Amino acid sequence: MTAPEVVILGAGVMGASTAWHLARRGVRDILLLDRGAAPGAGSTARATGGFRAQFATEINVRLSLLSRAKLRSFANDTGVDPGYAPYGYLWLATTAQELAALTEARRVQHAAGLAEAVEVTPDDIRLLNPAVSLDGIVGGAWCPTDGFVAPLALLAGFLAGAERLGVRVRWGAEIERLELETHGRAVAVRTTTERIPCGTVVNALGAWAARPMEGTGFALPVTPLRRQVAPTVPTDVLPAAMPMTIFVGDGFHLRVRDDRVLLLWPTPGAPGRPFDDAVDDDWVQGVVAKAHTRVPALRAIPVDRPACWAGLYEITPDKHAVLGPTPGVPNLYLINGSSGHGVMHAPALGQLLSEIICDGKTSSLDVRPLRPERFVERDLNPVSELL
Ligand SMILES: Cc1cc2nc3c(=O)[nH]c(=O)nc-3n(C[C@H](O)[C@H](O)[C@H](O)COP(=O)(O)OP(=O)(O)OC[C@H]3O[C@@H](n4cnc5c(N)ncnc54)[C@H](O)[C@@H]3O)c2cc1C
User: Fold this and answer.
1) Distance from the CA of 111 to the center of ligand 1, in angstroms?
2) What does the alpha-carbon distance between residue 287 and residue 228 come to, in Å, rounded to a whole number?
3) How far, in Å, from the CA of 48 to the mean position of ligand 1?
């Protein structure tokens, strides 16, 4: 078999975005591999679809702004509506310290060009989301251009667009490892059934990205972290256009999607079982108790326990993505570790990786903060536990 020019490992939103952007740049002979039987086998299908530019670091704000511009042309570019709905993100603070963190993040956001992010008072919050109890709320932050996207529509658009441009997608292909030359180039991808020679490889394996890196000399620090979601039964108790509403203190948040209210609350994963994506009854009880206190209208609306789901975030030590060539293996590129923001950032990251692969550098955005070497150099991005 002749070597495909580019083999992309993983056909989630990152792999699909990379394939489409490379094909648009004129790269021919791209092969996308995924072990799933169909699109959506990984985290992309589990995402709730939040989109925001209110982050605490310049690089994440800028990734969102680039993604947002691309979402606006996505239907034209791919023929699929990405479901971008700017219903806003509303952050709620219960202490002066939380409010100060929001203020500091907003300074970064404004400097990066997100002018419409503002501070809000409890009176503003009452208008923006009347369903939320203002008990203990001292203020918050609001950005009207944040909101939602449809994760599977983004994936479908990138995949369909890529296939129209000649990208081949092979489902049911379980990747086992990479074959390297002694002087540090990837020469083939080994699946359970075949050896696929390659010119260039892209690792877009989401929460599972670390394992195939064994033997490359670079320990990719991406670990899985379970995130659970509790949907209510179908209800119109809250409006479809309600903003994403997030409590800074414990990360509890809620949104309306497909006529249900989705309740979320970040907790540590299952101890000792990093890839476990079962939903815990205790967690469901906990998130429901929070919802009942904070959004009294939900006391009358039961959670749909069989419809609860969980999935895996792909976490890095500084909770920022990893983008670029692998140290020591220059034809193995990484697009990993978005740490829970991968759907919203995939349009930007796919474009940026195509620039790196085709031009040797990015032109749309300075992505130095995302370089893989930072973990070796111990030059990590600041981690905000709040946003
Ligand atoms: C509950 C939840 C809510 C989320 N909410 C949001 C949100 O609101 N906004 C947002 O932006 N992000 C959100 N995310 C994060 C988002 O889902 C991820 O960041 C994003 O989907 C990562 O995309 P990916 O393509 O890297 O990974 P994936 O979609 O996981 O794709 C990786 C692919 O690799 C394949 N694969 C893995 N191992 C192998 C192997 N050995 N061989 C072959 N194929 C393999 C998998 O089948 C999969 O299709 C959420 C995640 C979860 C779990």
Assistant:
1) 30
2) 10
3) 12
**Looking at ligand 1, which residue's alpha carbon is closest to its atom 34?**
10
Helical residues (DSSP H) of the chain, grouped into ranges = 13-24, 58-72, 74-78, 96-111, 122-128, 151-164, 281-294, 342-359, 374-377
Sort strands 175-180 and 186-191 into parallel, antiparallel or unpaired.
antiparallel
**Tens place of pLDDT per residue across the chain (387 aa):** 567 899 999 999 999 999 999 999 999 999 999 999 999 999 999 999 999 999 999 999 999 999 999 999 999 999 999 999 999 999 999 999 999 999 999 999 999 999 999 999 999 999 999 999 999 999 999 999 999 999 999 999 999 999 999 999 999 999 999 999 988 999 999 999 999 999 999 999 999 999 999 999 999 999 999 999 999 999 999 999 999 999 999 999 999 999 999 999 999 998 899 999 999 999 999 999 999 999 999 999 999 999 999 999 999 999 999 999 999 999 999 999 999 999 999 999 999 999 999 999 999 999 999 999 999 999 999 998 677
Tell me the CA–centroid distance for residue 206 and ligand 1, in Å: 5
pTM assigned to the model: 0.98
Mutate which of 44, 46, 267 for ligand 1? The one with the most ligand atoms within 8 Å of its CB, which is 44
Residues 6+ apart with CB under 8 A from 203: 9, 10, 209, 212, 213, 220, 326, 332, 333, 334, 335, 336
Q: Could you identify the atom of ligand 1 that is nearest to the CA of residue 344? A: 11
Ligand 1, residues at Cβ distance < 6 Å: 10-15, 33-36, 41-44, 46-50, 173-175, 204-208, 227, 229, 311-314, 338, 340-344
